[in-house]
Amino acid sequence: MRNAFHDDLDRVSDQLVHMTEMVGTAMTRATDALVNTDLGVAESVIAADDDIDTVRRQVDDLAVDLLARQQPVATDLRMVVTAMHMASDIERMGDLARHIAKIARMRYPKQAVPQEVLPHITSMSEWAIDLAKKTGEAIDSKDVHAAQEIERLDDHMDDLHRQIFAALHSEGWNHPTETAVDVTLLSRYYERFGDHAVAVADRIVYLVTGRYGDPNEGLQR
Fold first, then answer.
1. Contact indicator for 146, 136 with CB cutoff of 8 Å
2. What is the Cα–Cα distance from 43 to 202, expressed in whole angstroms?
3. Residue 16 near residue 139 (C-beta atoms within 8 A)
């Protein structure tokens, strides 16, 4: 019974890693639709979000089943409960990629992002894709140090978010209000994508150490 239980825990972990791969792909394709004004790609990202939601429900169903059948304690209990929270955060990352694709679709055949801030948006996408990859690796390895690295990487996303806001408020910005709203929302979507990766990283620290807060505190136990 215990072997079967731990096999199920491994399945939960594998599904979470799979979700990070799915949201990384969604972000890649959403940005491609945005930059290249590709309506077909935008539509495919929006449609594929249902697949991410399905995996999230599978994680929740399996976690609830394990709670009911196995009544886990200690680290096993933390794994089951934390997995449900992580699935929620990762699913939200997919929603944010979908939001980006929706802006690309809404402005088609025009490009939603002016050239002067396009490098910032593409950089935010690159950091987001890397954060999704690193999040999956940290989930798979249960490595606290890898989880801590995710927060450091997210600092780059926050810097780019601030740079875009500075561009919006600069004297050289001469685009209509509609464009300013689009860019503000897009920047926020990428920034929030990173925030959810950090939330997953925090949960990994809790899973391993049993403590929230400063990950260094958990490492000193």
1. no
2. 33
3. yes
Q: How many angstroms separate the CA atoms of 135 and 44, rounded?
A: 24
CA–CA dist 167, 18 (Å, integer):
36
**Does pLDDT of 160 surpass 80?**
yes
pLDDT at residue 220, as a whole number: 40
Whether the upstream peptide bond of residue 109 has omega within 30° of 0, thus cis, is yes
Quick one: the chain helix, strand, coil %, rounded to 5? Answer: 85, 0, 15
Query: Is 79 within 8 Å of 9 (Cβ atoms)?
Result: yes
What is the biggest distance separating any 2 CA atoms in the chain, rounded to whole angstroms? 67
Question: How far apart are alpha carbons 51 and 15 in whole angstroms?
Answer: 12
DSSP class of residue 110?
S
**What is the percent of the chain where pLDDT is above 70?**
95
* CA gyration radius, the chain: 19
Instruction: Kindly state the percentage of the chain with pLDDT values over 90.
Output: 85
Q: What is the pTM of this model?
A: 0.93
Q: Position of tokens 């958990």?
A: 218
Name the E strands within the chain: none
